Amino acid sequence: MQKIGLIAGKGELPNYFIKQAEKKGIEVFPIGFFDEINDEIKKHKNFIKVNIGELGKIISYLIINKISKLMMIGKVEKNTIFQNIKFDETFSDLLSNLPDQKDETLLMGIIGILQKSGIDILPQNYMLDDLITEEKVYTNIDVDLSDIETVKVGIEGAKALTSIDVGQTVVVKDKSVVTLEGIEGTDETIKRAYKYAGEGCIIVKLARPNQDLRADTPVIGLDTVKQAVEIKAKGIVIEANKMLFFEQEESIALANKNKLFIKAIKR
């Protein structure tokens, strides 16, 4: 039987992947860093919990179980990464050899060590191609003509943000940037936008210019749409071909019900 290791982040997507894999007769070995991950995953027979800094322990677990393929999927919020982190020797050596500690640099460093240990990292759309965003308007309504310039401002802001690897989400209103994503993550960025600008904001989320689908692929889903509805946003702009759109049917239905657009554009 084929085996796949899974570093599971928060949300429903990792559990969805496990079910898709097991339908195909693939045995999954989930690894969790946080208590907040899906309860079903924590009950999985192969599940182990490790500290995010225990890179050596992760590699040992995979090798002992003869696993040569690894998937990393699910939400990992930056403000929780650095809480109670314990660096083992492997992780400490990695940090000492990196030019900086940006998200992308760190992830590529981890991928490099895993590959040297004989473990291939699968792209996050593995068996999930149906979730890759397409260039189109998903909802019944499109961007209003009066908001086209505001969306352009959001796209330029998100391009700048992703190019320096700080975040992926920008919230805009009336041709102005309201909030930029930082260490707090997408959800808090959206909440701050409502605090500062009230109703009628537009959420823009893009991938990195050279997005590596093996790590930190941007995802939107029902939670994002619920956040947009809660702040009475006008809509969500996402990037086509480089993101995962999870729980599409429910998300589109909720957006249509609340007259909120979801549009995927090419960079």
Q: Flag low-confidence runs.
A: none
Overall shape: it is globular
Secondary-structure element sequence?
EHEHEHEHHHEEHEEHEEHEEHE
Give the strand order of the largest sheet, numbering strands 1, 2, ... along the chain.
Answer: 6-13-11-9-7-8
Largest sheet: 6 strands, mixed
User: CATH homologous superfamily of the largest domain - what is it?
Assistant: LpxI C-terminal catalytic domain
CATH architecture descriptor name of the largest domain: 3-Layer(aba) Sandwich
How many extended strands?
13
**Radius of gyration, whole Å:** 19 Å
Specify the number of helices: 10
Q: Return the average pLDDT rounded to an integer.
A: 92
Kindly estimate the percentage of residues that lie in beta strands according to DSSP.
Answer: 15-25%
Report the span from N to C terminus.
40 Å
The structure class reads alpha/beta
CATH class of the largest domain: Alpha Beta
Query: Can you tell me the number of structural domains?
Result: 2
- CATH topology of the largest domain, by name, is Cytidine Deaminase, domain 2
Question: What is the percent of helical residues?
Answer: 25-40%
Domain LpxI N-terminal: 3-131
Domain LpxI C-terminal: 136-262
Organism: Hypnocyclicus thermotrophus
Protein name: Septum site-determining protein MinC
